[in-house]
């Protein structure tokens, strides 16, 4: 159930409703908006009297939420944005273009990549300090050293950082460096990690699990939201099917479906979907045309020398050319880069 407060009603009225819900033994979550506040109620709603709630000062209406994902539901609010910095948000008119090395390697490589990405129109630097790998013998990332490299690049370029978090014990240390905490596909259902990320206010980018349904995807987002962090970004990165021509199968249909079901911003990772750089531009452009709020891509100065996923990283020239095409598509669908 959600309780919608009247437009421009004071926060105190919402707090009074929150207190009433608590007295009933239910869990209220206050979602503050620019025009009105909304209260989501978690628990057995049968003990609530809708007539009493509707009569409380400041309440506009009380609505049931039938979907199992209460806080991620589109019923909670219209399309929302997640603020990254004062001038960068995900979900607004301007597309969020997150690009960089899949894994942080050296300060020189990271700096060169960030500068190339920024020059082409990208606005967020990506780089993995911790890397979950299928083989325990593969490169696992530089850890703390990688975070320090990303922070140094940020100091020199001003580009905010998105990096992956693997372990609940690392949340605080990674949050000191990162502007966006990325939860990879293997950890989409790592509920302890999601709860920990719910305890901070840093934006969380949640990737869809490789075999997850859209409802399962949204239920994972619900763990972060219900723990108190409203700043969640969804990322479609391809799902596992019987097809072997690409690394994964990019579910383009997930974009409009998610847009209809949830208020959370949706971006796409065409690099991990394709697994081959030649296919990345087409998938990236299709994602923007389908309504995605941004992209997450691998870029490297010399892709064959990349320590992680060399086959899918774009060269600087390829990324620059792609950005020129994206600008045209963005304009056609009412967005900017």
Question: Which structural traits does this protein have?
Answer:
2 domains, TIM Barrel, 14 strands, alpha/beta, 337 residues, Alpha-Beta Plaits, 4-stranded antiparallel β-sheet
Give an overview in words.
The protein has 337 residues and is α/β, with parallel strands linked by helices. The protein has 2 domains: 2-63, Alpha-Beta Plaits (2-Layer Sandwich), CATH 3.30.70.1140; 82-332, TIM Barrel (Alpha-Beta Barrel). Helix content is 34%, strand content 19%. Strands 13-12-11-10-9-8-7-14 form an 8-stranded parallel β-sheet. A 4-stranded antiparallel β-sheet has the order 2-3-1-4. It has a two-stranded antiparallel sheet with strand order 5-6. Helix 3 packs across helix 4 and helix 3 (107-120) packs parallel to helix 11 (316-332). The longest helix is centred in the last third of the chain and has 17 residues, at 316-332. It is elongated and about 65 Å long. The mean pLDDT is 92.
Summarize the structure.
The chain has 337 residues and is an alpha/beta fold. It is 34% helix and 19% strand. An 8-stranded parallel sheet has the order 13-12-11-10-9-8-7-14.
- Element string (H = helix, E = strand): EHEEHEEEEHEHEHEHEHEHEHHEH
Estimate nothing, just give the exact number of structural domains. 2
Number of strands: 14
Low-confidence regions: none
The CATH class of the largest domain: Alpha Beta
CATH architecture descriptor of the largest domain? Alpha-Beta Barrel
Structural class: alpha/beta
Main beta-sheet strand count, sense and barrel state: 8 strands, parallel
Helix content: 25-40%
* Total DSSP helices: 11
CATH homologous superfamily classification of the largest domain = Aldolase class I
Whole-number mean pLDDT = 92
Question: How large a portion of the residues is in β-strands, by DSSP E?
Answer: 15-25%
| Rg calc | 21 Å
Shape annotation = elongated
Largest sheet, order of strands side by side?
13-12-11-10-9-8-7-14
CATH topology of the largest domain: TIM Barrel
N/C terminus separation = 37 Å
């Amino acid at each position: 159930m959600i309780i919608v407060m009247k437009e421009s009603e004071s926060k105190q009225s919402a707090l009074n409703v929150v207190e009433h819900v608590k007295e009933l033994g239910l869990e209220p979550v206050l979602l503050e908006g620019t025009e009105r506040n909304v209260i989501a109620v978690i628990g057995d709603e049968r003990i609530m009297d809708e007539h009493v709630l509707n009569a409380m000062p400041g309440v506009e209406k009380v609505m049931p939420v039938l979907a199992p994902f209460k806080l991620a539901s589109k019923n909670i609010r219209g399309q929302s944005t997640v603020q990254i910095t004062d001038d960068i948000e995900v979900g607004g008119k301007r597309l969020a273009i997150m690009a960089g090395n899949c894994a942080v390697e050296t300060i020189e490589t990271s700096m060169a990549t960030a500068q190339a990405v920024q020059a082409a129109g990208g606005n967020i630097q990506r780089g993995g300090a911790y890397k979950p790998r299928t083989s325990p013998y593969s490169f696992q990332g530089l850890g703390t050293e990688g975070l320090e490299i990303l922070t140094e690049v940020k100091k020199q370029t001003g580009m905010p950082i998105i990096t992956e978090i693997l372990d609940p014990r690392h949340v605080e240390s990674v949050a000191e460096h990162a502007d966006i905490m990325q939860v990879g596909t293997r950890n989409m259902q790592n509920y302890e990690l999601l709860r920990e990320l719910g305890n901070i206010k840093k934006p969380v980018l949640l990737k869809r699990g490789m075999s997850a349904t859209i409802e399962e995807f949204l239920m994972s987002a619900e763990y972060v939201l219900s723990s108190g962090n409203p700043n969640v970004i969804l990322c479609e990165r391809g799902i596992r099917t019987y097809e072997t021509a690409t690394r994964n199968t990019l579910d383009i249909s997930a974009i409009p479906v998610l847009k209809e079901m949830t208020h959370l911003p949706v971006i796409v990772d065409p690099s991990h979907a394709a697994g081959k750089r030649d296919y990345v531009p087409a998938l990236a452009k299709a994602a923007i045309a389908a309504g995605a709020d941004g992209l997450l891509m691998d870029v490297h100065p010399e892709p064959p020398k990349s320590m992680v996923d060399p086959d899918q990283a774009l060269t600087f020239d390829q990324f620059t050319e792609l950005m020129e095409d994206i600008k045209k598509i963005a304009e056609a669908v009412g967005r900017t880069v």
